[in-house]
Amino acid sequence: MKEENDVNPKSKPRALLELFAASTKLGLTSFGGPIAHLGYFHDEYVTRRKWIDERVYAELVALCQFLPGPASSQVGIGIGLIRAGLLGGVVAWIGFTLPSFLALTLFAFLLQGYPMDAAGWIHGLKIVAVAIVAHAIIGMGQKLTPDRNRVAIAVISATVTLSWQTAFSQVLLIVAAGLIGLLMYSKTASSDFSSLSVPVSRGTAALCLGLFASLWIALPLLRPFSNTGFLPLFDSFYRAGSLVFGGGHVVLPLLEREAVPAGWVTSEDFLAGYGAAQAVPGPLFTFAGYLGAMAFGFSGAVVATLAIFLPAFFMIIGALPFWSSLRSIPKVQGALMGINAAVVGILLAALYDPLWTTAILSPADFALAMILFVLIALWKWPPWIVVAASAAGGMMIS
């Protein structure tokens, strides 16, 4: 990118240090989920530091909303790529991810050996997860299912997800929804686009896309030869990171169906960790670190975190050079409209099972969930305060 964003090789170490400092600051202070993260990024990288302009930022956000994976983390990686090349992308990811990874891994160690069934505050964390996901569904539904056809896609997707719970059901749903969207919405797609230039060659991009596809195919084939150890863990979390559209909350059902049946965590441990993940800043995908630590200690936390974020790296590096031309194709935009509607349905199914069925066990639980929802949706309380309130409420109910 031959603009003011280029970094002279002699100043690259300094640029990397500045990038790490800025991204770590965001990792320590960015509460509120992916949409809030994008606001923090805009304030830090566009308004304050002026590392990229409004046009480039808008294009980058649009691309990351299209790709599977954690959108806010991919935006941060993309800004690192533009600022300091491939190493800049890695540094930006480490800074943004490390604080929440360490916090959730420590939380996992604190919970191990703890009598979960006797912990009222743990039950409160499960209840707040219901309120948070319900709020996410309403917000996503308003944007991604604005007409009756996409509402129908979402409802059918939720029904199929609840009725047919297999490892491939959600993949097939996403593919089917994309085909429906292609047929129904290709003619209504927008044609107003600007270009995006980044310092990544198409050869490097093609290599990353090839690695993404190769691992996606090879890991399930290799898994039967290693029923224990880190390979099944890496496969499960890599696949989850590869299939998530629509933001961090959608990874919940994917991870639950990988981690709980495999015996890595109990259902109670899973929901307690998911509730705790709402109390820390940074990407929700670091929930993988908690699950990996519960199953295999600190090494498991590192493996699970690397596995779930690796597809995001491959996809953002692989897609950036091709995005400007690809996103202008009406058929691609139409397919994305259908996929986004299916994502709302998948998340709606997750709200019922495992969240509602496990957390809402009494009228008092339902009352606490309503109060927490109001605090989040209407009073706009900071997430960490809401999580603390939920833990206290769970103790009072118990």
Q: Could you characterize the architecture of this molecule?
A:
Pfam families: Chromate_transp. Its main location: membrane. One of its GO terms (molecular function) is chromate transmembrane transporter activity. Keywords: Cell membrane, Membrane, Transmembrane, Transmembrane helix. The chain is mostly helical. It has one domain. 75% of the residues lie in helices and 0% in strands. The protein contains 15 helices and no strands. It has helices at residues 12-29, 34-48, 54-66, 71-111, 120-144, 148-163, 169-185, 202-222, 230-243, 251-259, 267-277, 287-326, 330-359, 363-377, 383-397. Residues 1-6 have low confidence and may be disordered.
Characterize this entry briefly.
With 398 residues, this protein is mainly α.
